Amino acid sequence: MARTQSRKELRQGRILAALEANPSRRVNQLAEELDVSTETIRRDLSELDQIGRLSRTYGGAVSAGNRFEPALNERLGLFVAERRAIARAAVARYEGAETLVLGGGATMLTFARALRETRHRITVITPAYPIAVELGPNPLIEVMLLPGTFEPQERMVCGPETIRALERYRAEVAIIGASGLDPSGVSEAMLRAGEVYAAMLAHANHGVILADHSKFGKRALVRLRGWSGALTLITDEQPPDTLAAAIRDGRSDCVVAAAE
């Protein structure tokens, strides 16, 4: 005789179905759709996160069954204050570099919005169209767009042509975001973007990772690089002990940005 599903199991099944339809949902949205309290939704999300069915985010959740991160527009609404603090700290440290290679993504777009006010002359190489659009109006910033196959979710180019173009350059600093930070290193959820970001790090004198605390302890599809003296992490919170020890043992710098 088949077992009857409990109300909680049915509700959690509906939560997972909602996340499949829209990979990023807020707690209040789920509570309204399922006609339950936000406290109930938070308990359900915590349980589903513990068993690996989804990943908690600030104020909501992302489906673990979705291979990719939420689309760029969706991510721009998350961790806004944290990203701005990270961006300010990164600009203060690196706007004096002659050449920057910049990745794409929500945190990098926040960084570009801070960098566009610079009074330094900089050459920026990027595969990401939103980064070029942000920086292009500043006459002191020369923007070089890389070639490649356009990836609409991230609004950037990827593929062999992009990587071959990167091999022609040796930049002072490569700055990218990340999907995961764990003791083994830095990782990216999207395969093709990850290949480009790994090439960026390989062809720069120094690599910089801009990532908020939600990436701590996570390991995504593509491992970009292990912790080393050629890598700096700029984040918004002190990493937990295990991750902090790995960063320290690898001789990477870790900069904790101060919020306003």
Gap from first CA to last CA:
60 Å
Please outline the major beta sheet. Answer: 7 strands, parallel
- Specify the overall morphology: globular
Count the beta strands.
Answer: 15
The succession of helices and strands, N to C, reads HEHHEEHHEHEHEEEHEEEHEEEHE
Unreliable spans are none
Lateral strand order in the biggest sheet: 6-5-4-9-12-14-15
Class from secondary-structure proportions: alpha/beta
State the helicity in percent bands: 25-40%
Gyration radius, in Å: 19 Å
Number of helices: 10
Task: Describe the structure in your own words.
By secondary structure, the chain is of the alpha/beta class. Helix content is 38%, strand content 25%. It contains ten helices and 15 strands. The strands form four sheets. The protein has a seven-stranded parallel sheet, with helices on both faces. It has a three-stranded antiparallel sheet with strand order 1-3-2. α2 crosses α3, α5 crosses α6 and α6 runs parallel beside α7. The chain is globular and about 60 Å long. The model has no long low-confidence stretch (mean pLDDT 87).
